[in-house]
Fold this protein.
Amino acid sequence: MEKQNSIYSVGDKAIRFLTGALCGAVVSVILSLIFALFFTLTPVSESFVSAAAYIVFSLSAFLCGLISVLRLRTAGLINGFISGTCFFVLYAVFSLVFGSGALFSVSTLIMLVLSIIFSTLGGILAVNIR
């Protein structure tokens, strides 16, 4: 018999959210490497780098929400939002550890908004494809 979402413990839900966030992070690394190779091998202007970063982050957040809610099976809007928040926190931690240390900027705010919007959309889609 299949468990219902309401009887998942907090730990079970947290693991499902973190799994989605980690899958999103892996996709983000892979897409970043692909874009880096593309920018290295082609004469593309450097002004497209920030746009590519936003695209990679948005796709990764979407997959984060999709994977988390596919595992949770219900409440796509709320669970997508929560998984997007987890994904952004993971991004912020990595940014602090490996980046310049500037956590609060316009770019960070844009990443937060993109994370929440696209992970929520991924969560909504996950509920509707079940």
Q: What stands out?
A: The chain has one domain: 8-129. The longest helix spans residues 10-41. The radius of gyration is 16 Å. Residues 58 and 117 are 9 Å apart (CA to CA).
